[in-house]
Amino acid sequence: MRNFRGLALALLALLPAVAGCGAEGGDEDTLTVLAAASLTESFREIGERFTEQNPEVELRFNFQGSSMLAEQIRQGGAGDVFASANAEMMDKVRQAGAVVRGPETFATNRLTVITPPDDPAGIASFSDLAQPGVSAVVCAPQVPCGSAAEGVERNSGVRLHPVSEEDDVKDVLHKVTSGEADAGLVYVTDAVAAGDQVRRVEIPEGDQVTNEYPIATLEGNGDRSAARRFTDFVRGQQGREILRRHGFGAP
């Protein structure tokens, strides 16, 4: 299933980015932002605020797993700004020569456990995810949320046996909210976004593994001044406040 999904998303990347906001305009005014899936809600709000103040810019978002976005950029995919869920994926893009400004860290995030509201498996701790009969879902190890999950496993000494490893954190969230899994390991920000659709279980082990989120201006084809203004907005006071309200930590 994951291979099929990865192929489908790669094909979708060949199409114009969607989920835009802002004023309509020509290509010279279009700014394409490639952002980690965990940034979906916060960056949509940031985008609305940014375009209110920069109405000449048509802002388009492409939200996917950071590893998939990094590979698209390395293969020449279109994009003007990249916001990653960890430094490793940004380093790959930088080493490919695609970064023209940055990267700079703008936020942090950590993992938490979520369950359906009725908590059918009685999950009270991280170690409960490893109990027999518990269907736990995590991110695949090659993506930032999966790498963080491995860090939590190492620090806790608990080895998980997930029933599924997903390509991005939103897929983990969906498995839990749809009732397909007893529990999932997601970012705090995704638990905040889900609201009463999930029950959140605080895990001290998650506090020891923090993902830093870097942002950079890419070679791109759009207006670099608009890209710089957007990255500055994300890192500025208004951007930081929006990120804080969505559950992100300070850089």
From TrEMBL:
<dbReference type="GO" id="GO:0015689">
    <property type="term" value="P:molybdate ion transport"/>
</dbReference>
<dbReference type="GO" id="GO:0046872">
    <property type="term" value="F:metal ion binding"/>
</dbReference>
<dbReference type="Pfam" id="PF13531">
    <property type="entry name" value="SBP_bac_11"/>
</dbReference>
<dbReference type="InterPro" id="IPR050682">
    <property type="entry name" value="ModA/WtpA"/>
</dbReference>
<comment type="similarity">
    <text>Belongs to the bacterial solute-binding protein ModA family.</text>
</comment>
<dbReference type="InterPro" id="IPR010916">
    <property type="entry name" value="TonB_box_CS"/>
</dbReference>
<feature type="binding site">
    <location>
        <position position="38"/>
    </location>
    <ligand>
        <name>molybdate</name>
    </ligand>
</feature>
<dbReference type="InterPro" id="IPR005950">
    <property type="entry name" value="ModA"/>
</dbReference>
<feature type="binding site">
    <location>
        <position position="187"/>
    </location>
    <ligand>
        <name>molybdate</name>
    </ligand>
</feature>
<keyword id="KW-0732">Signal</keyword>
<keyword id="KW-0479">Metal-binding</keyword>
<feature type="binding site">
    <location>
        <position position="66"/>
    </location>
    <ligand>
        <name>molybdate</name>
    </ligand>
</feature>
<dbReference type="GO" id="GO:0030973">
    <property type="term" value="F:molybdate ion binding"/>
</dbReference>
<keyword id="KW-0500">Molybdenum</keyword>
<feature type="binding site">
    <location>
        <position position="169"/>
    </location>
    <ligand>
        <name>molybdate</name>
    </ligand>
</feature>
<feature type="signal peptide">
    <location>
        <begin position="1"/>
        <end position="19"/>
    </location>
</feature>
<protein>
    <submittedName>
        <fullName>Molybdate transport system substrate-binding protein</fullName>
    </submittedName>
</protein>
